[in-house]
Amino acid sequence: MGTLKQTPVATEPETNDTHTVIKPERIASILNEMRQQLVLIGVRIDAKGPLYNSLLVRLDEATQQLYLDELNLLDAQELLSVGDVVHIYASLRGIAIRFVMTIDNIFIEDGHMLYVGAYPTHISYLQRRDIFRVPLPLHERRSVTLQHERSELELTARLIDLSIKGFCIGVLNGTINSRWLQTHFRYFNMDLPELRAPLSGQATLVNLRPSIHPGITAAGFSIIHSDPQTERALMRAALYYQREARKKAD
């Protein structure tokens, strides 16, 4: 078992869209709900890096420590060590929350790597539902076709995650570069579970970031002029994937 190490308190920048929870009893209640509901957790080793999946598997109320399950890719585990700060993202009742955790201990239990850290001193409760994002499982191969509105660029790419305001795709490095940022694309043939027909519309390329897969860039899009029907359809699909993730964790 690894040794405990005193580390500085990790902090997370706030925005106008967040409500900060600082009462210890409320923080403990949020963490307990995450554990009881087997909420799928997103973990970033770097604030702008790829998102890895995990679960909150245990809470120790006496020591005020939480235990995260091993990340979904082995190469990510090799990057983590005691003293590292990780960024935690999750969703409760369709509203996104986030906090940071300093890893105080790493050990193996029943064949699983566990990461141990102190309860956060504050949790950011994001009040905009559009920030609620759900990653698609690795075995789920859903795609969308995109066509740039002012060029001949057209591509069909795999969906990585989605929210009610946008989606993210994985493309080969160099397929889309930074000069396309803030430009508009038409998207169509987005076929998702629990939808009667594929979705189509307009979207703006808002960010490019590394993917968990070597050679792949994650491209994030924000849907333009989204209507309530499209938002409801995306929320149904997002909740479907969240339910499936919970079933797998049972």
From TrEMBL:
Q: Which domain of life is it from?
A: Bacteria
Keyword Nucleotide-binding assigned to the entry: answer is yes
Please list the GO terms describing molecular function: nucleotide binding
Domain Type III secretion system flagellar brake protein YcgR PilZN as annotated: residue spans = 21-123
The entry's protein name is Type III secretion system flagellar brake protein YcgR PilZN domain-containing protein
Recite the UniProt keywords alphabetically.
Answer: Bacterial flagellum, c-di-GMP, Nucleotide-binding
